[in-house]
Structure prediction request, 145 residues.
Amino acid sequence: MSNESIDKLIEQFTSEDDLRKYASSQFKVIQNLTKQIAELRKENEELKSKPVQVQTVQSVITPMSSFESSLSTSDEETICIYQLRILRDLAVSRELTLEEAKKVDLFNKNLREIRNIPKKVEVSAKDMTTEQLLKAIDETTQKPN
Prediction:
């Protein structure tokens, strides 16, 4: 605040008593703000001194069993399996985010496609003939080229 601003402020008060009340209230505000700053600085130092608890991806990954690692899998399949394990372990400790849930769906679809696991097809067989049933079975078991 410049001297001109202070002079204009002083002119607003009609009596010395009003000026003292204003100065007293300003002093109280300064005291409260100084106290808050000191508390925040203390809290900041406490937070800086606490160790940061970050869960790394390495600690989330559960190692493959010897049986799983002995199977010959493609890189794509291995990536899907590991990513699904990471997301599974996260889901145990907390709810998955929307993005993580979408990743689970995507990795499952990729894994199913890599392994050529057919999707379940529901067919109402009550009104079907034997030929129609056999045709439906053939259609679901045929592998796409």
